[in-house]
């Protein structure tokens, strides 16, 4: 995506293009958190971001295009993986990061809105899948390191272990309810670690 009138690769990172993108994505995230995907409107986003409507329409085109770029930005801005030196320490760090994100007043509402949108819009779903794959791939390294240290059986599917950590947190957020606190996050990490040690994720 490029600014109107600019050739690809000619706009300096950190220049006006970056400032416009930052303002628009922040406004889009605020609107999603406040009102949900159904009420996302490009003209309203432009007004909130104090950006010309033409710029928003030409750069993003549709609300789904805007949400897709928002997810790219969220992946880029996510906190880096924690390396504690032990499997359970790393998995708990992952679980607590997910827990803090989902219970944050803005971020939790934002994720709910995006997940809801993904159930009925293919482009949003694809963007959401890419977002999570990016995060899973980053954190899977800690499982691979645990295999190398002998904490887990050879052949353990590292990405499946990471998915098993966060799955209960998302289930509680979206389906079952109940407190989504640090203790619950730790239990999710411990359960995934125990299953991985038992060989549940081999192959």
From TrEMBL:
PROSITE patterns: HTH_TETR_2. Residues 18-78 form the HTH tetR-type domain. The keyword Cell inner membrane does not apply. It comes from the Bacteria. Keywords: DNA-binding, Transcription, Transcription regulation. Signal peptide: none annotated. Pfam families: TetR_C_11, TetR_N. Residues 41-60 bind DNA. The keyword Zinc does not apply. InterPro entries: Homeodomain-like_sf (IPR009057), HTH-type_TetR-like_transc_reg (IPR050109), HTH_TetR (IPR001647), Tet_transcr_reg_TetR-rel_C_sf (IPR036271), TetR_C (IPR011075). SUPFAM superfamilies: Homeodomain-like, Tetracyclin repressor-like, C-terminal domain. This is AcrR family transcriptional regulator. The lineage of its organism: Bacteria, Bacillati, Actinomycetota, Actinomycetes, Streptosporangiales.
